[in-house]
């Protein structure tokens, strides 16, 4: 189902499969072949920030699961306490090597296209904070369940950067134009309750109940005839994905040019300093 464009790049082979278990240093995956449900736990300590290799691992895992005829649904969650994903690894953008910066952005695009358009049913079990790139992963799933007392949102402007158009499109498709406009301008991080109220997440349950709730909802999804469910997702999402597919190269170049600006580097350096200071308080 994912268009051939999405399969142009062969992902790195860093995920190992042992029967129904797949492992890499940053991801733990198990597949229940009875139910057809896979569980992917992100475990890149300390905060599941998305660097080049982690992005390739996530995409690689989705591709492998898509090829498993018994797998119909994927639950994404975190193995790191209190953090779903801290978003992009800021160190990929700060004082970067230019070639790696290109590859990094391409890997982010490819991971997103794979996740957003996968024919697998996807549920994000958001068991921790989920800013920026973490929010992107969440809103790219078909359904979101979040635990209380965490935050989620596209907070890029707080870092002195701007959410790419495809982050914006995915957000607009979830909460609507006006809410996205406000959220992006203010770099808004929603509390779990606000996120539920705005439709950024679909359900709130306690951390203890989140996996059970995700399994329950996933059983609803995988009961639907597979092709019909996957095609209805494609119907809703293809236009948004095509917008990036047709401009991937220029999007990489725009990102690299943007990142290399002195002003952007200063903002990122300042933000990293604040993160460290906050920790020492
Ligand atoms: C013409 C137009 C062109 C378009 C150009 C588009 C450009 C757009 C580019 C990019 C889009 C960006 C997307 C992103 O995802 S940016 C990342 C946003 N993420 C954040 O702001 C989160 C920051 N982190 C936090 O708020 C917190 O760390 C936390 C709430 C996630 C967890 O808090 P806590 O448990 O208290 O942990 P610490 O803060 O102590 O963190 C531990 C450790 O990890 C480091 N760290 C945290 N987040 C990141 C990160 N995203 N990247 C790298 N490192 C991170 C933190 O600094 C600590 O490090 P240590 O002191 O060395 O231990």
Write up this protein.
Helices cover 50% and strands 17% of the residues. With 281 residues, the protein is α/β, with parallel strands linked by helices. The protein has a single domain, classed as 2-enoyl-CoA Hydratase, Chain A, domain 1 (Alpha-Beta Complex), CATH 3.90.226.10. The strands form 2 sheets. Strands 1-2-3-4-5-7-9-12 form an 8-stranded mixed β-sheet, with helices on both faces. A hairpin with a 4-residue loop joins strand 3 (27-32) and strand 4. The longest helix has 20 residues, at 98-117. It is globular. Mean pLDDT is 93; it is low at 1-13. The structure holds ligand LUC3G6IP. Residues 46-47, 49, 83, 86-91, 129, 131-133, 155-156, 159, 161-162, 164, 254-255, 258, 275-276, 279 line the site of ligand LUC3G6IP. It is found in: Mitochondrion matrix. GO terms for molecular function: delta(3)-delta(2)-enoyl-CoA isomerase activity. Keywords: Acetylation, Fatty acid metabolism, Isomerase, Lipid metabolism, Mitochondrion, Transit peptide. Homotrimer.
Write the layout of secondary structure elements.
Blueprint: E1 16-18, E2 21-23, E3 27-32, E4 37-42, H1 52-67, E5 73-78, E6 82-83, H2 90-93, H3 98-117, E7 121-126, E8 128-131, H4 133-139, E9 143-146, E10 151-153, H5 165-175, H6 177-186, E11 190-191, H7 192-198, E12 203-204, H8 210-223, H9 226-245, H10 248-259, H11 262-280
Parallel strand pairs: 4-5, 5-7, 6-8, 7-9, 8-10, 9-12
Antiparallel strand pairs: 1-2, 2-3, 3-4, 10-11
The structure holds ligand LUC3G6IP.
Ligand LUC3G6IP binds next to α2, β8, α10 and α11.
């Amino acid at each position: 189902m994912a268009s051939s464009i999405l399969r142009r790049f062969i992902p790195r082979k860093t995920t190992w499969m042992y029967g129904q278990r797949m492992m890499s240093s940053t991801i733990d995956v198990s597949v229940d072949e009875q139910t057809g449900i896979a569980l992917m736990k992100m475990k890149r300590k300390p905060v599941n920030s998305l660097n080049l290799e982690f992005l390739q691992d996530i995409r690689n895992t989705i591709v492998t699961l898509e090829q498993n005829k018994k797998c119909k649904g994927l639950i994404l969650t975190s193995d790191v306490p209190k953090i779903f994903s801290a978003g992009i690894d800021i160190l990929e953008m700060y004082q970067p090597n230019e070639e790696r910066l290109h590859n990094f952005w391409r890997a982010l695009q490819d991971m997103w296209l794979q996740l957003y358009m996968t024919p697998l049913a996807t549920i994000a079990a958001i068991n921790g904070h989920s800013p920026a790139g973490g929010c992107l992963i969440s809103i790219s799933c078909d359904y979101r369940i979040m635990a209380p007392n965490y935050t989620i949102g596209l907070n890029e402007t707080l870092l002195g950067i701007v959410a790419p158009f495809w982050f914006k499109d995915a957000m607009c498709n979830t909460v609507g134009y006006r809410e996205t406009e406000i959220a992006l301008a203010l770099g808004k991080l929603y509390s779990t309750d606000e996120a539920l109220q705005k439709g950024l997440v679909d359900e709130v349950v306690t951390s203890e109940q989140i996996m059970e709730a995700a399994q329950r909802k996933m059983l609803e999804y995988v009961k639907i005839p597979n092709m019909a469910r996957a095609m209805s997702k494609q119907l809703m999402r293809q236009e948004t994905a095509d917008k990036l597919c047709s401009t991937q190269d220029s999007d990489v170049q725009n990102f690299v040019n943007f990142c290399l600006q002195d002003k952007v580097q200063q903002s990122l350096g300042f933000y990293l300093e604040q993160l460290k200071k906050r920790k020492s308080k």
